[in-house]
Each structure stands twice: as structure tokens, then as C-alpha cells.
Amino acid sequence: MTTMRDVAKKAGVGVGTVSRALSDTGYTAKATREKIFAAADEMGYAYDSASKSPVKTGIIGVMVPLLEHPFFAKMTDCLEAELYKHGYKCMIFNNCGNEADPTGVIYMLDTGILAGLISLADPPSDFLGRKGKAIVSMDRGWGENVPVIRSDHAQGGRLAAEAFLESGCRRVIQFMGANLDAGANDRHAVMEKVLRDNGCEVTSVRTPWNMMGYSYDRNVIRSYWNVVREMDGCMTNDIAALSCLSIALEMGVRVPEELRIIGYDGTGITRLCHPELSVVEQDCTALAEACVDRLLQLLRGETIPEMLTLIPVKLKKRGTT
Amino acid sequence: MTTMRDVAKKAGVGVGTVSRALSDTGYTAKATREKIFAAADEMGYAYDSASKSPVKTGIIGVMVPLLEHPFFAKMTDCLEAELYKHGYKCMIFNNCGNEADPTGVIYMLDTGILAGLISLADPPSDFLGRKGKAIVSMDRGWGENVPVIRSDHAQGGRLAAEAFLESGCRRVIQFMGANLDAGANDRHAVMEKVLRDNGCEVTSVRTPWNMMGYSYDRNVIRSYWNVVREMDGCMTNDIAALSCLSIALEMGVRVPEELRIIGYDGTGITRLCHPELSVVEQDCTALAEACVDRLLQLLRGETIPEMLTLIPVKLKKRGTT
Fold first, then answer.
1. Contact B271/A215, CB-based, under 8 Å?
2. Which CATH superfamily is domain A59-146+284-311 in?
């Protein structure tokens, strides 16, 4: 019986390369692919004929709102590493903070330049769902045909509420994104409910967070400072939470005695302050693994068992609660 | 006389697309390119024949050590935006923090999957210089054929030294990378000289900074804390400088009265603390523009006027000096 090793020998390449080409799970140069398929055909070695499709770039697009944002930078590092393990390269698209056109991504999928797409951003406005395309979304809904990987933000909201309650908070403010349909906003609804059920006042401020970046987030907290200082707890993203801590220190407000702060995301920057920030930490490695796992299933044409996958978050209690 | 508009009309595409294809300055789909060149040939419209080469991906590789590092994240955002302006897409390669193989980048250049490369990282160990390839390096030397874009780090070292002297420092410590050949290390030599010429003691600690990331940098400062506390000035990268500030606050060392701190890079994180960090700021926008400008010259086959381009830095005096 012909083995993969025989095909590799005949094609003059390694067994790993043959495996990648025949199972269509990674990049192989065009000339090499042709040699491998010719050898397999000649020797009668069976493979899934879909693997033979001529367009094989091995390039996966990763669409992010902004790399400067530390959560997206970390996620991109993790996705690139995870894709690399499976023989894929990573092409990054930013769709916020510059004029990059997200419909370009769909064009590159349609023409086969990209083998698949992992998106951490909203879909293009004219995206109508593409059945059969290898697209995975993190957090946001891209329509019924696109699997979603998401941190368990409801758990995150509950953990934050419990941490505020344990430290004796009575009046908590939270800052949330403008797009309340986004799954990331589950945390706000759950935190508000748990706190109210326990007799706390909750103020929820909706801001156009899609305007991202260090100076924007800092300015939001500064402009709401008169509201924040009437509170004894504040939950917001890492950048805004660090801004909140630094303004409190500047104004002589004691943290955590007078104001407890919880950062949401838990990226590396939250330990670069004193006191270190208490956070709800998203597990970037597990999120990236789940995204890539789902994408590989789509590329292999498998049925997706669950269209929504939730990854647990953790509360890291440090110095600000 | 045949105009570009005539060629566009005959090929059934926009003038911008014709311009991109004939001047070879951006991505055009293969079928469209063929129509455009056929129309131009038929109508006798002149163009540089080098543009007609079949391999036109419009994809530029950007190689970075680690996106989680805020300077590289910001640079990647700026490079992606600048490349997009000129019709190019960006493919990211991390070469530190995961197992990604930098020689894969060279393979993708050789096979035409990448039209060019901008590297913010060291060259692969077996890279011997490729004359005629469109490669631009930021900071590091990639051999005599590769143009280098670099912040004026000597100016940065001088500005930092002057800031320490103005604030009355007498004993300054600086942390520097292991690879003293890297142009980024000019700042250390110049700062040390200017400070010594003015009667200051200088301690220069060489660390394997190539081990990057939030927790590594924080641990370095913590392990050197007994040395740092004997000093009255400290210069290091943004992450380590923020760590230095937070440890000082934790230990009750007054900043800037007892210890002045200067961060090198000046990314967004340096304003998320109290007092805000004084920094030497690299101009990421100008660095990205210069990298892309140089790359476009190489893609057009032009002679590079200067193999080394220096971009000015700025001292931003804030709360820690």
C-alpha cells in the first residue's frame, strides 16, 4: 500500500510538506504542490480532492480595530503565533484609526488571496454573510453563518460586581461602548443587575468607545471626573482605568480606600502602576486557540458544532479593590 | 495622443487603477492588469516595462519583534496606514515571543508573494544581503544594500542628558540592550559622554532586552532596584520607566525630587501615570513615512540617495524630571 512517506520520496520533499499539501492545512509553494499532487495521483494515494484547488495562499487575514490598543496587540500576537503553529501566515488589517477599507478584506477573501479571516472588528457595512467562507469573528456578530468566539463577559460583569460588593462599594460607575449589541457589553448589563440587586447605585455612561486610543480614553475619564469623584467604584477598560487611577492620585483621592477601580481586559499595562490595577482578565491565548481551531474546522469543511464559544475570564484582585 | 484616460476607457476600468498598474505602485487583480497592459500596448501608450512583471501581490511584509510592545504596535499602525495610502496591504511577521521563522519572510520575498519588506527586527542569521530586493530596515543594520531609517538616537541621548543635568542629577543609571551594534544604542553612548563631561557618575546596565514584554521589563527593574535607589536619575524604555516609577511610589521614593525618570520611545502608556513620564519621543508617523517612501523608491527601481535617514526625536518634559 502506498504511504505518505512514499509520496514524499517520489516528490522529493518532506513528509510534513506532503501532509500539509494533501490535507490543505498550510502554505506550500505552487511548484511543490504540483509535484506532490502529481506523485499522489501517479501512485494512487487518496486525498480529499478539494485540497487540490489551485488557490492556496496559506494567508489568513486578521482584522483589528487598532493595534496601538494593548488588548488588540496582545490578541494579534497570540493569533499570529497560533496560526504559525498550523502553517499559516497572518495578514493584518486595521479598520479604525486610519482609512483602511474593510471591504478590501472581503475582496481578498473572494479572490482567494486570503484563505480565511479572523475578525476582531465589526463587519463591513455591506457584508451580508457569506456561506462557505472561512470567517471567524471574535466578540461581534457577523451574521448567522459566522462562528463567534467570545470571552464570557457575563461572568466578567458578575465577578466585577462581586469584587465591588466585597470591598464595600455603594455607588459604582461604568463606562461602556456605544454599540450595545456587541457581546462585549454583556458585562455592563450583568454588573449593573448584580449591583442593583444588592442595593448599590449604578451609573452607566455610554461613550463612543469606537474612537479608540490612549489620548481619547484619558480625555473621556478627565471630562467625567466630577461624576467619577462622587462614586466609590469604577469599572472601565484598562487604558481608561489607568487614567482613572492617575487622575485620582493627582487629585489626592485615595485608592482603594475612597475609590475602587477595576480594569477590563487585564493587559500588561495594568501592572505598570502603583497600586497595581485589579482587573477582569481575558485569556488571550485561549481566545486565539479557539479562533484558529474554529477557522481550521471551516477550512476543512467540517460542521461547526457551536456557533458561539465562550472562554472563561478571571478576576485578578490586586491593589485597587 | 493617447492618454491614460483612453487606456482606462478601453480596458473598462478607472483611471486610478490604470495608473496603479502601469506605474506598479499598488495592488491590481491579475485579470485587470492583463486588460490594462493589453489596452496600453494596443493603443501605443508608453509605460515602464518593469511594471508588467507578472508577480504583483501588492503585499508588503512588516517584520516586528513583538506587537505587545507599545512602540512596535504604534509603528505597525503607522506603517499599515501609510502603506494603505499607496495602495499596499500589510502582512505582519512577529519574530520574537513566538516560533515564527524569519527566513519564511525571505522565502516569501524570493517567490514574489511579498512585493517588499519593512523590518523592525534583526535580519535572519543566514541573510546575506539581497541586492535588488525591496527591503527597508528600521534601526538595525541589514547589510550595505538595505537602506536604514532610524530616529536620531544620538540626539535623543543628548536631550536626555541635558534634561538630567538641568534638574540637578549627579548619578544616573541607564538600561541598554545586549546588542551594542544596534543603532538604537547610540543614545546610551552619547548620554553617558555628555553626563560624564559634566561631572556626573553614570552606570550603564546591559540587559538582554531582546527578551521583551511587560513582565520581563518590570522584573529587570525590580531586580536592579537596590542599584537604582542609589541613583538620582534613570533612563530606560517606556515600559521599564513606568515600572521604575511605580516601584518608586511603592517604596516611598519621591519622584522627581529624589529620582528623575526619563522614558525612551514616548508611547501612549507614558501618560497613564501620575506624575506623567518625561520622555524622549520617537516620531512614529515620520518614521513610517520615511520607511514607505524609501520602499517605494526601491520598488520603482530608483537610486537611493542616502542609505541612512535620521528622523529627529523630541524631549517631552512632564512630571518625572
1. yes
2. Response regulator (3.40.50.2300)
